[in-house]
Fold each of these.
Amino acid sequence: MCGIVGYVGAQAAAPLLLEGLLKLEYRGYDSAGIAVMNDGQLLVSKVKGRIANLCEKTEGGRQVPGTIGIGHTRWATHGAPTDVNAHPHLSNDGRFAVVHNGIIENYLALREELTAKGFHFESDTDTEVIVHLLERYYAGDVKAAVIKTVSRLQGSYALGVVCADAPNTVFAAREASPLIIGLGSGEQYFASDVTALVPYTRSVLYLDDGEFAALTANGVTVFNGAGQTVDKPLQHIAWDIQAAEKDGFDHFMLKEIFEQPAAVRATIAPRMRGRAICLDDVRADDLKNIRRIVITACGSAYYAGCAGKYAIEALCRLPVQVELASELRYSDPLMDEQTLLIVLSQSGETADTIAAMKECKARGAKTLSIVNVVGSTVATLADHVLYTHAGPEIAVATTKGYTTQLAVLYLFALYMAQVQGTVSGEEFNRLFGELEQLPHRVQNALDMNPGTERLARKYGGASSVFFIGRNTDYAVALEGALKLKEISYIHAEGYAAGELKHGTIALIDEHQPVIALCCNGAVADKTVSNAVEVKARGAEVLAVTFKGDTTLAAVADDMLFVPHMEPLFAPIAEIVPLQLFAYYVARENGCDIDKPKNLAKSVTVE
């Protein structure tokens, strides 16, 4: 969710760090900073906002002299985007500076422990506990302090550490967050992405989880968690800078499709503690008087709301409306203090969504935003906010943004059901277990569809494609159609399968592709009947169903699969093969997948 760089050598460190951060700018961030060692003193400069602000503040790095340092671009998770919350963070004694990517899940307990021991915290971040732990455990041996510190951390981290008492060494550590070491001649580097390294070296070492490294101008030593040296194979980066940004994937969209299991895990794991759901600043008392829920959003976020509606209504037994923000803002909406408005947005800056939110708030509605960008307008306006923690999404067509929004809606549905008393303890535990498996289900959906590229070649020449489904399957049909149309430019329509006979079936003729979604057992037989109807009129049917389910096998021409799972939560996995299908169709047709024509990532005007 942010960028990290480090350098040690004979050159001025600050300009190199700034250049490295600029190479990581595409990842998204809200603040930036660097720390450089100079004559045994740590010089720190950090700012809210763009790297350009940091370059201006440091005069391109000239105001921060020294030949060893670390840098960071922050995508806020704990604490608002401010100068104080920006990295690097300093220890109370000024001896250590740290930059960190990831989330420290046990930071609250560590913060309380350190505060009780007299440590003073400047920021609201989880990262600051790391630098104070280093100070606490330091007894003249930086390596030993690093080992002891990381042993206390739960969660994910890529760390860069410098110490005034070790003026020739920079340390780097990794756990569940990427960190790459770059080897040069008389200088060494580290970064969270090879993008920042390839201008200077293509010889790299990839740290594994639980490993850390000591970098000096003369070389790199890698250690395991016990402090024993580890031999790492030297690898060569063969691709160019643009490809490096994509981690070897042909397009950002494909990379982001495959990032979804990790993104969903990052979204739900911090909120599932023991056998309880903890929704940040949302409290049970805030929800007890809610009698109606309205979900509003635009585009894919709206379709995530359509899928989430079924889970909330089924579990909470409350009426849920899903409204397009561009319509809701002009509809003279009926709102009161017993209405909860749930606002979905990836960027948090969607103009129609903001306007609808303001209108509903003015009429008394309580507001909860589900958004990816910390400190965005939608997050700031809401009474309560739940961040998706999807990380920056570069492709215009959302993938992990959609699935992480769904994950939060499912968490909310089960939490709200517990508040309302509409689920038994046994049912809560069963569904809690199902939620825990969501990252694995998404990964399964990626793994069990190796033939998607072949199907894209078969259907990619179509001028129009219909997606049909009922209930939750209908909601997924809407998003599946949007994915195909926005990146392949093929007309695609998501349609309620039961409505076919009310007009649309007139458009079905020979070889018309129809994608039939059938992952909801309660309406499966009805959907099969609809598939038979279109087959009788010459359509070719591509079915999306649970692996091993033979209900549609006798009808469908081709199949895409989803792992068996709780039907209410199935949309989060069901969309995955349709994302892959849309991607490969667009690639087959030579489209600009990451930047479709006429589209922008964030629609900030009406």
Amino acid sequence: MRTDAHTLWYDTPATDWHAALPIGNGSLGAMVFGDPVAERIQITEESIWGGPPVPEMPPTAREAIEEARQLIFDGKYVDADNLILEKALAPRIAPRSQQPLGDLLIRFDRGWRPAEATDYHRELDLRRAVAVSSWQIADTRTEAEVFCSASANVCVARYSASTPGTLNGAIQLRRESGATCRCLADDTLLLQGQASQNGKHLGTKFAGVLKVVATGGVVRQDTDTLHVKGADSVVLILAAATDYNFSAPGSPLPGDLIATARTRAETAAATPYGQLLERHLADHGAHYNRVELTLASDVCDERPIDARVEAIREGGADTALEALQFHYGRYLLITSSPPGSMPANLQGVWNESLAAPWDGDYHININTQMNYWLAESTNLSDCHEPFFDLMEKLLPNARAAARQLGCRGAFAGVTTDAWLYTTFYGRPGYGMWVMGLAWCSQHFMEHVRFSGDMRFLKERALPMLRECALFFLDWLVEDPKTGQLVSGPSTSPENSFVTDKGRAMLTMGCAMDQQIIREVFTNYLEAVAAAGETDDLSAEVEAALGTLALPGIASDGRLMEWSQEHEEFESGHRHVSHLYGLHPGNQYSHEESPELIAAAEKSLDGRLAHGGGQTGWSRCWLINFRARLRDAEKAHEDIRAFISQLTEANLFCTHPPFQIDGNFGYTAGVAEMLLQSHLKTGPGGEGGYVLHLLPALPQAWSSGTVRGLCARGGFVVDLNWSDGELVEATILSRGGETCTLRWGDRRQTLTLKPGERFTWAGR
């Protein structure tokens, strides 16, 4: 067993789901408990969702929105909130959740008691994506290996014993409700059902087939249970199939689900276990091994992970665990969002509940976006693909929703799910918001900047940006007091402010809306220029951009969240939406807008002084903010706070409860502390991409190395530093762009050919 800087390990089995170890292949996710007597492997299939109806825009929405705008301009904020709630927002439909497939239960039978198992060890090696547990009972050592194969699209579990003929047990498939289990053969189980919420919201139909292969023993069936007797080793192969149709969710896929799953399981079972494992290791390693990070004195701590987390809670330091958490975020994206899968949702692809927190859906007012902040910078660009697929599949409904508001283009609100709805719904504080698709369009342009993929630019990024730009050209209205273009009615997710009539949520021209629209417009113009196309929309976009209202600085020096200086209802709110322009946007910089950087920093300090950052994802957003502010020590404080206060025993992010976006946001934040890259003109007049090396390096990370981080402009960067000083930087150019390296007060401008490397020595 290995206990190194890429391994989560424990000396006891998991007794709780939040201590179990996650494995996955995008389609399937499994939580492995590692119990030596009564094992549970909890399985989720990505496309099992409770079904329609979906939120639909009320026919009165357009008229109500126009009336609410005037109410807001007149200062009647509460009246506007009430009008929108009554006439514009669709009812929230919940629960209508993403759901698990079920549990694989393995009851071992040798007549022993749990206390007789000794020398127990449980681990997840992130480089191998294999959950391993082992234990000793009398003279026999038993080992279990569990992984999800991407190439075979199955979950594989292998049990082996050092003493031949000693593996005996009962194997079952179970689900809380909505499914039945039966034997298909002496060695095969079937779990079959349909997703629903207590018989309502009928959704996807599914079938799970388990094939059991015993070596040196026999397998027999008994109604809904398989019994293994006298085996040397046992391999369990689980496959699943559903009728969900990602391209057209309203038209279920035809075909025999049982036959599909059974064929998949039997094909994998006919493959020698060693070959299945070898292919899995190659598939996973091709992604995982692109990046390596070592921080400070990364001497491996031999204590179990839960003990190390507890030590941080008590004030200890553990930079190796901070690096492990970075690698864990990459691991989770690889295993929940490979190309060809559905994108990672609020739970990634790991969910044990028929009614998951927030339905396990796609919240596109930060959470889904945060899931993918790390994709480009940490060399997982291909894992970004499922996100792009989802956004493009939203377009038909997003266009229809825009037409209902009398607008061209397309928009999506705060949330979507497997059924691809886009309209606003619920309550004004979160629901009256049309920025979801627009924010997501940023990811399309970022992919172009990192990859240099001109085909993607022309065929995918530019069409998406055009849809969003068209919508905003029709959505924006002129503020009668300033003559500037503003968006609304809209919320600054999910904050509120105080008025003379009470708490209110909706305004015109809140900071996040204006920043996102500015970004859509500038990205669109950049994309048109990069594509070398003539475009009849560009002049219209340029004109609107010239009169677009942008956030100001309040009398207390903070960046304004709303167009007026309202008093915050909750000064420590978890969202910090008005700093979008700082991160994930790139609208403020120390060199070009220092006054806005100062205002953003003051806003952030004020939010934290009143208790902000209390959720996992929010704390990890703070890491990214602090990295952009180049405040290394505060960024590191947020890292320690996240690990000590907002992670579970298995290092999952807790909102609370579990919500995976923080894991991804953490990894993105660490990458941002080590490398930043932007297309702009710097203080020395240099052009092209500026690669800022170690821009927010905390003292605790005074020495270290990182290999394989990616920068805009198509660069791959390796860094080595010691005692806070850059020792060496190696830059690989994939696309032949010009860049300027920056570290401290040093600059080096270079143009490399595609495939060429450059090594820059530090001081």
Amino acid sequence: MSVLGEPLRLGPRVVRNRIVFPAHLTNAAVARRPSAQHAAYYGARAAGGVGMVITEEQSVDPADRPYEKLVDGTDPAVVPGYRAIADAVHAHGALVLAQLGHNGGQSSSLYSRAPVDGADDEPDPMFREVPRPLSDAGLARLVDGFGLVAEHVVAGGLDGVEIQCSQASLIRQLFSARSSRALPFLVAVLRAVRSAVGPDGVLGVRVQGDEGFAGGLATSDAVAVAVAVETLVDYVNTAVGVATRTLPLIEPPMGVPAGYAAHVPSAVRAAVSVPVLGVGRFTTPEQAREAVASGSCDLVGVVRGQIADPGFATKALRGGRVRRCIGCNQECIARVGLNQRLGCAVNPAAGRESSVAANGYLAASTRTTSPFARVLVVGGGPAGLAAAVAAARDGHAVTLAERRDVLGGQLAIASRGPERRELANLVADLAHEARDLGVVVRLRTPVEDVHGIDAVVLATGARPALPAWAGGHARVVDVTEVLTGRVAPSGRVLVVDEGRGHAATSTAELLARRGASVATLTPALVVAGDLAPTLDRERWRRRAAEVGIAEYTDRVVLAAHDGLVLDVLHHLTGEVTPWPADWVVHAGPPTPHVPELVTDVPVFRVGDCLAPRGIDAAVREGTAVRERFSRL
């Protein structure tokens, strides 16, 4: 057994292994109380073998409400919800703690209709509200709030509490402001919570390690805080980034390596005697094992990796291939940011565990239909692969036919762009699952006539569509032509973004790094606007500046003339300007590809051939085809 699988004592309790499911927002609360979805969600990770679950933040002040679905832990009505969570997790042998916190100035009056209480009167860069500085009496009131919520947690049967002093936290803000009240307040909170949880409860603290900006808290500050409170706690958790100012440090997108934050737990662990929990975008069992084996932490936090695959822990300890998180942030970070329940692009069941049967996203071991003799899946992109896996799990005899010589569809192409390589992981993981389930995969196999089959899943995707203004010009091409290597634009290259996603930016960066003089142009207010919700935009802007990519917004291409000169309309002035270029690369919405099939059996369209959308829709619809089979 590796160190990852060894039990570890946390004060009065023993955690069965070193893998933790740390606190993160789910947006699953109902009326500010824990819901059945919380219990099902956390229970699924406990069933998957995790050692300890830490719930999302429970507020210690009813007026603290930065987002609509923050649980109000001060309300006694939360206790039954806590009990349901405890029962769901304990049923599978894991520990479960609740994280307690107050958001301070990183909050909003939108829902509370009350002034925001903060460490000082400095507005947060995201919420931009001027806080009301808390008095000593106000801080004392919050100490009582922490104690009250801890009492509710104990009454609900959870194993303990973690105090949030990082990321979105009033306590972090006090330390960041170098307030003399910070440490006394934290100590008072820890003592009040210890009194509530008693000698049998676990008490942890999550400290801020690196705020990510000049003058902010650094690793040395985390060490100082941890040393100051280690006699009061059973473990120390760590974090980097601030939940508004440097959010991409907390939930980094693909391209950021595993262990990027390891310097914080390593430094803390060297200074304290209690166990230390480290986080840092660990998405594979190998990365989790290395984090603990290297000595950088005693416990390893895996959030998105266990959202993507609830069985991550068991597979990490006993062997098995996980369905990897690809760091796209589309359904977890971006969806929660839109006030929707958390989801996952690679795991359609995530965030829907309590209603999974009703939605057709069933566990791999669950069979819902009598198998057809034969199912043909046409198309080997993410939708087709997901459909093949789902159908094979239900006992159908599945053949997948792909006209190209590789699987993956648009993902196989998109993964060739800078910092997009992990898209290929989803293709590889689905392909392995399909083959393990006995799916027959046939490449270079176009399909027109279908005979001797009981059902067809059409997953033929979408194809590029150049705009009318391109006029058939030979040097106006789609981004896919560049990414596949069919063309190699050079000289002055204009990338026209009419799709708002990664297609334009990754292609522009690829060409710039090859030596082209690249500019991006869009009719929107910003280039690739969809990169902001997934936290990719900041990293893109830094890389664009590094390679000299110019950005032009509020501009519409009207026509392309011989020579290659574009007519470009500037929205704001109405001026039409000639724009010379050696190449124009277009990124825009594709067109569904729906081939004519000769067949008399049911045909189910999924993914982009139904309507071009994102990865999440492709995998979700492919997986849900099993439900559609059951209606026949």
